[in-house]
Write a structure and sequence with these properties.
- By secondary structure, the chain is an alpha+beta fold.
- The chain folds into 2 domains: about 5-145, Rossmann fold, CATH 3.40.50; about 165-285, TATA-Binding Protein.
- Helices cover about 35% and strands about 25% of the residues.
- The protein has helices spanning about 5-20, 55-60, 70-75, 80-95, 110-120, 175-190, 210-220, 230-235, 265-285, and strands spanning about 45-50, 100-105, 125-135, 135-145, 165-170, 195-200, 205, 240-250, 250-260.
- The strands form 2 sheets. It has a 5-stranded antiparallel β-sheet with strand order 5-9-8-7-6, covered by helices on one side.
- Helix 4 runs parallel beside helix 5, helix 6 packs across helix 9 (about 265-285) and helix 7 (about 210-220) packs across helix 8 (about 230-235).
- This is U6 small nuclear RNA (adenine-(43)-N(6))-methyltransferase.
- One of its GO terms (molecular function) is methyltransferase activity.
Length: about 290
């Protein structure tokens, strides 16, 4: 038996098992893709799909600008990509606790809007889209999750923390980690803080002057005036705190601050809070 015949036999068997019986209220007319493959005890970070884009091999060759190489088994399925991804969306409802993220490539922008609506109707708590462009070919990415996003923002007003972070979400594709890093650098220069940027690591080392460090410690409730000279020497020896920018997924960046000296926790919290407000105003307001 050929690989194609074996695949058809598997699909036919799955269709008989899944075509008529509703499962947890989800009525199916097509075989499942993920059900029966994922075990009850298995937990995954994400599911990634590159679906068959076309309904027929003839359709696959209609537009030479968007055509792609592959066999009919790889590129073609009944109903095309919309039907295939819809089946994954249906499966995701039943496997919502097995995957943190479900993701799929989408070949047609017209299908993206339809699929986003289906994901929202399925009850996903988070839905994300992005665009990929290479040469003359454009593709879209669709991601969804039924798990509520964890609160990533640690309010900078909380004293005594050595690490703070916040998320920049919904960014336009022209804004990435490098642009955010340069804006953070501009912010520190405008605040009269000395900083050294490492573009390869997407990080900024910030160092306070003697006067700034002394003023910070004298106003820090956790510090004391006595012995401040020794604390001051420790504070200004090397980096005071470090800012790093990480790309979590397209359109989403994590900005993290790490304090090198607890004596400066007050000014670190205050400065990081101002940086958060500045970057969100600059980048998230442009995303709307």
């Amino acid at each position: 038996m050929s690989c194609s015949s074996e695949s058809e036999a598997v699909v036919a068997e799955a269709a008989r098992e899944n075509s008529l019986e509703p499962v947890d209220g989800v009525v199916r007319s097509k075989p499942s893709i993920l059900l029966g493959v994922v075990k009850d005890s298995e937990i995954f970070d994400f599911c990634m799909c590159n679906p068959p884009f076309f309904e027929s091999i003839e359709e696959a060759g209609l537009n030479p600008k968007t055509s792609c190489g592959g066999t009919s088994e790889e590129m073609v399925c009944p109903g095309g990509e919309q039907a295939f991804i819809t089946r994954i969306i249906e499966d995701s409802v039943l496997l919502k606790n097995s995957f943190r993220w479900f993701t799929s490539m989408v070949g047609r922008k017209a299908n993206l809007k339809i699929l986003v609506s289906k994901v929202r109707e399925a009850g996903a708590s988070v839905v994300k889209t992005t665009e990929f462009v290479q040469g003359q070919t454009a593709r879209w990415g669709l991601a969804w999750s039924f798990i509520a996003p964890r609160k990533m923002v640690i309010r900078s007003s909380t004293p005594g923390k050595n690490n703070h972070s916040f998320m920049l979400q919904g960014l336009r594709r022209e804004y990435g980690a490098f642009q955010v890093l340069k804006s953070a650098e501009t912010f520190f220069h405008a605040s009269n803080l000395s900083c050294k940027t490492d573009s390869s690591l997407f990080s900024i080392d910030v160092t306070l002057s003697d006067e700034q460090a002394q003023a910070a410690m004298l106003h820090d409730e956790s510090g004391s005036v006595e012995g401040s000279s020794a604390m001051l020497h420790s504070a200004v020896t090397g980096t005071s705190f470090c800012i790093s920018v990480f790309e979590q997924m397209p359109g989403t960046l994590l900005v993290r601050g790490s304090l090198s000296n607890k004596a400066l926790s007050g000014i670190f919290s205050s400065t990081f809070s101002q940086l958060e407000d500045t970057l969100k105003m600059e980048f998230q307001s442009k995303a709307r």
